[in-house]
Fold this protein.
Amino acid sequence: MSENRLCNPENGIEGDVKDRLLDEAERFFAEQGYGRTGVRQLAAAAGCNIAAVNYYFGGKDNLYGEVWKRVLKRLTEVRLESIRRVMEGDSPPPLEELLRSFARAFVGPLTGQGSGRLIKLMEHEMFEAVLPAATFVEEVIRPTVKAMGDAIARTCPEADRSRIPLFIFSIIGQLIHVVRVRVMFERGRAPDFPKPEVAEMIEHVVRFSAAGIRNGCGGEG
């Protein structure tokens, strides 16, 4: 099969080429970062010619953006589903149950099997800062804060809606730290220091945050 044919959507394989480019781009961007990854390298790994990157994505910048949108969509869907699942009953669940479901969905994809590539991708973006800041706001923060905010408001109807985003950002900040601690211990083991368990850290975040939210709502901690 010729490279030109791989780039021609009329042959019915457009989706296959695009998916291969996205898969290989995600792998290379995670391993090497944006700056050290070349278009020629990506095209060769995906089995098509350089023109395919421009044809399907309009260049390396847009390809990088699409890789991230795909990654962020997966993460966001898992988190939103965790909220929908726990809130689907007629009566709101205990606050701890909502926070626990969200925390596990947040941390799981970042600490479970196959999470290494995602962590590396995030680390490269943190240092290179290629993506527009609005990408994270629109793809992750806005839908997550909206769904979690509605859930907390239903679970704690006495809560001040203007303060709920602060509760959510506090919870997310703690969960990000859980991920960082886990990565730190995985990369540099200290035999004489007890390794914190992810499940134990999540439970601490849940109880600490629930007490803080209730206190902020004027209820009992």
About this structure: The chain has a mean pLDDT of 88.
